[in-house]
Every structure is written in structure tokens, then in C-alpha cells.
Design brief:
Layout (H helix, E strand, L loop, with lengths): L8 E6 L2 H10 L3 E6 L6 E5 L4 E6 L13 E4 L3 H13 L3 E11 L7 E9 L5 E7 L4
Parallel strand pairs: 1-4, 5-8
Antiparallel strand pairs: 2-3, 3-4, 6-7, 7-8
Length: about 140
């Protein structure tokens, strides 16, 4: 039996702490726990099913290729577009517009997903993701 019970958090280093904080709070994440100040400030943002841990960083940020993307699960297909539009209104840049994709080769049976991507305040790739319930 696995003693791993899930993913607790994903760490994100940001160059403009206040801008990123405003962006993620604007998407609906909630302040959970914070510490430090200035260049050492950190904040845990609760998604309801895990945490985004955000750190102020004046140092060079890691290359984007080292971090694929941050995906937020949403309740329905319509919410993918709502969150995508909200992110754009908060200053995000479009990466790919909302689309529903049928995964014919998925196992054990085909499913459909709806997703959209934006670039967040530091260029991080952020996905809004919905998957139809599995049978």
C-alpha cells in the first residue's frame, strides 16, 4: 500500500510577488499560509485540492522547460472558458484557447477533455482542465 496520499503543493518562483499574488488570488485561490518578507516572502495558496507555494525570487528563474505547466482542475467544460477569460482579464497571455479534445486512444476507453492554456505573470504555463467523469 502506498503511503503517498496525493500532491501537497507545487512550488513556483516569481519575479514580481505582488503581481503574481494578485493574479492567483484573482483566479480564486485562497491565502493559506505566508511567511517572510521582501525578497524572502513566501505564500501558500489553497486550490481546494492542493497548494501552490509561491516564492519571491530576484535571482534568475529556472528555464521554463524545467516546469511543464500548472493545471487547475475545474468543475465543468464551461468553467474552462470562464477561468481562461478571467486569467486574460488579470493580465495573462493566451497560449491556447479553450478546446474539447476526444482522446480516442485513451485506455481503457475513449474520453473527452476540455482545456485551455495561458501564460501567467512570469511566463509560466497555466492550464484550466476538465475531464468528463470516468465510467
Amino acid at each position: 500500500m502506498s503511503k503517498i496520499t496525493g500532491i501537497h503543493h507545487v512550488a513556483l518562483y516569481v519575479s514580481d510577488f505582488e503581481k503574481s499574488k494578485k493574479f492567483y488570488l484573482g483566479l480564486g485561490l485562497k491565502e493559506h499560509l505566508g511567511w517572510g518578507e521582501g525578497d524572502n516572502e513566501a505564500l501558500m495558496l489553497d486550490t481546494g485540492a492542493g497548494v501552490v507555494e509561491m516564492f519571491a525570487s530576484k535571482a534568475d528563474l529556472p528555464a521554463a522547460g524545467r516546469f511543464g505547466h500548472l493545471a487547475f482542475n475545474v468543475c465543468c467544460k464551461e468553467t474552462v472558458k470562464e477561468k481562461f477569460d478571467l486569467a486574460l482579464s488579470l493580465g495573462a497571455k493566451e497560449k491556447s484557447a479553450p478546446a474539447t479534445i476526444k482522446l480516442e486512444q485513451s485506455r481503457p476507453y475513449p474520453i473527452a477533455i476540455t482545456c485551455a492554456f495561458v501564460f501567467g505573470p512570469d511566463g509560466e504555463s497555466v492550464e484550466f482542465f476538465y475531464c468528463e467523469p470516468l465510467k
